[in-house]
Amino acid sequence: MSAGRRANTAGADLARYYDLDLVEDPGDVAMYLALAAEGRGSILELCAGSGRVAVPLAAAGHDVTAVDRDPDMLDRARVLWKRHPARKAGGGSLSLVENDVTLLDLPERFDLVILALNSLLLLDGRDAQVAALRAMAHHLEPAGRAVIDVWLPSAADLDLYDGRLMLDWVRREKERDEHVAKLTSARHDPETATALITTFFDAWQDTKRTRRVMRQDTAHLLTAAGVRSLIREAGLTVERSAGDYSLAPFQSGGDRLVVMCRGGRSYGGRSGRG
C-alpha cells in the first residue's frame, strides 16, 4: 500500500508525529556517520523507523538496509529518500524491509549493524531483546561491528513515572499546517522493571482540535549490567562501552550506554530463534 493511500490512518499520523518528536536531533546521527566511514561494507539498521538514521547514511554514499515492522514508518523513509538530492546524484542506496527484527534472516551480511535510540527497550521482554541481538550477530560480516544505544533511567527519572500526565511540547507540524501537543503518562512497575508509556498527540488548526491519536508502549528497562548480559547471551562480544554520542567512556551511574560489539559464536537458521 502506498504512502498516499495510507495518509489518513492513525498509523500515518503517529509516524508523522514521531518525526516531529525528534525534530530536535538527539545527536547520534553524526556518530553513526563517523562509524560508517571507518568501514567499507554495507549497513543494516534494525527498528529503523522513518529513516532518521538510515537516510543520512545512504545520503553519505553507503548501501543501507533498513528494517522495521511498521509500514507507515517505512513509507516515510521511502518518501524521504526518494526526495533526497543525494539519491539523484547516485552513490548510496536504501533498501526498506518490512519485517519483525526478532525473526530477521536476510541473505546478506553487513559491516555495520545498528540498533539505535532505545529501540532495544521497546521489544517485548528479554526473549525478544536477545532475539534482536542475535539477529545483529547473525547478520554481521566476520569483521563487522554492531552498535546498540540504550537509555538507562535513574531513580529520579522513574519517580516521575507515577501515572501523572505531562506536557512534553507544543510544536508546529508543517505537512498539515497543524499545531501539535505531545502529552505523556508513564507508570513504572519496579517488580517487572517495565514502564507502561501512554502518549497522546493532540493536533489543531486555529483554535479547533482536528485529531487526537494515542499510542502505548511497554518499555522493558535495563541496567548497564543487564545490557551486557543480553549481549553475551546473543553471542556478541563487547568491544567498547561509551556513555554518550561522542563515545566518551561509560561511567557508572550514566544515563546512556552506547555499546560497540563484534561477532562471537554464530547461530544457524533464523537468527531470532537461537
Elements, N to C (H/E): HHEHEHHEEHEHEEEEHEE
* Overall CATH class of the largest domain: Alpha Beta
- Derived from helix and strand composition plus strand pairing, the structural class reads alpha/beta
Largest sheet: 7 strands, mixed
General description of the model:
A 7-stranded mixed beta sheet has the order 3-2-1-4-5-11-10, sandwiched between helices. Strands 6-7-8-9 form a 4-stranded antiparallel beta sheet, with helices on one face. The protein is 27% helix and 36% strand. The chain folds into 2 domains: 10-152 and 223-273, Rossmann fold (3-Layer(aba) Sandwich), CATH 3.40.50; 155-220, N-terminal domain of TfIIb (Single Sheet). It contains 8 helices and 11 strands. With 274 residues, it is of the alpha/beta class. A hairpin with a 4-residue loop joins strand 6 and strand 7.
Summarize, please.
The protein has 274 residues and is α/β, with parallel strands linked by helices. The chain has helices at residues 10-21, 29-38, 54-59, 71-83, 85-89, 125-138, 155-159, 224-233, and strands at 43-46, 63-68, 93-98, 110-115, 140-151, 162-173, 178-189, 194-205, 208-220, 236-242, 256-263.
Task: Give the SSE layout.
Elements: H1 10-21, H2 29-38, E1 43-46, H3 54-59, E2 63-68, H4 71-83, H5 85-89, E3 93-98, E4 110-115, H6 125-138, E5 140-151, H7 155-159, E6 162-173, E7 178-189, E8 194-205, E9 208-220, H8 224-233, E10 236-242, E11 256-263
